[in-house]
């Protein structure tokens, strides 16, 4: 057995109270990391996560911020530094603005702006706030949550896909810019993932979608979190610039 040990590491997860984020938080803590739980409005879920992290014997900090604002992220950075005395070793950019999908002709321009702000600018702001400390340390992990939609380009996905494809370009450039400092920059691209919402609603089975997936099932939130924790660990020390679909083979990047 090859263990993943993040003891002594501090991890920030944005959108930590979301369907995927909450499992990432718990899994990072189970691997030994202290966790910064970012939220924008879901204070109750964040408080619950904090208790779960602390029950594992890890330190947890709640931080509220609008991730589309550099000033808010800078404030968050200062709160983190004041609490831990240092900045995170691992940053997981998971938050995204939710909106109603429709066709390009009917989609509001504001929806494209929200996706650019939450997919691209969030990562610019996080990089400016947290990468300098990683550069000084000579090590770090930036992990972004992308989507299989970036490769599907299906009708109705335009704003989301545009934002995530912009994020992909940013991450590839960042990987080349900060690699010499021992920082890895990678993306995890979930498929249509089973989360707590599906379990509560009994909607885990989606036959039409599953029929297109080579593994003939949907993935789980835990499987997404497992990939995030792998990328955060020393096991992925020579992996950077990667776009890793965790979707049962539903999309496959070309070479």
TrEMBL record:
The entry lists its GO molecular-function terms as: oxidoreductase activity
Coiled-coil residues are: 39-66
Keyword Oxidoreductase listed: yes
Q: Which CDD domains match?
A: SDR_c (cd05233)
Q: For this UniProt record, give its keywords in alphabetical order, as a comma-separated list.
A: Coiled coil, Oxidoreductase
Q: Which GO terms describe its biological process?
A: bile acid metabolic process
Query: Is the keyword Secreted assigned to this protein?
Result: no
| Family, per entry | Belongs to the short-chain dehydrogenases/reductases (SDR) family.
- Please report the name of this protein according to its UniProt entry: Beta-ketoacyl-ACP reductase
Name of encoding gene = fabG_7
